[in-house]
Amino acid sequence: TVDTPLLQALRLLLRHNIDSIAVVSEDQRILDVISRSDTVRIEDQGVYDTNLLVREFINSRVPAKICVFYEKDTLRRIFFHFVQQNVKELFLVDPDTGKLEGQLNISEVVFFLAFAVTAKQTPGNTASGRSGTATYASNPSHVM
């Protein structure tokens, strides 16, 4: 949440080996995103403060681009999001409620393609290997 110390957010990035982390409201809607590159900018500006709250940090900068996908998106559509938005992380949200349900890293997609996709699958299939739903996403246990 926005009342979490920024240092805790940075530790979550490292612990889960991810490039960005969602900052969510109490009802699990994404408010902003903190990335590893944000931390470099903080240090570069000379304002690195381990006591800084996430709220203070996100209020001191331009809001981050929040890139989402939906459970019913095809694998092709998910790839399009990664390429078009030039990001390494996408957030799975419920299209009806806007609540965060998961997070997907481009590395997970590459791993999936390298080891889980069979030769019989055709382009346009979904991340789960079936037509209809993209269910391959990380558990959002590391959100702020």
From TrEMBL:
It holds the Pfam family CBS. Residues 122-144 are annotated as: Disordered. Keywords: CBS domain, Repeat. It comes from the Eukaryota. InterPro entries: AMPK_gamma/SDS23_families, CBS_dom, CBS_dom_sf. Belongs to the 5'-AMP-activated protein kinase gamma subunit family. This is CBS domain-containing protein. Residues 1-50 form the CBS domain. The keyword Repeat applies.
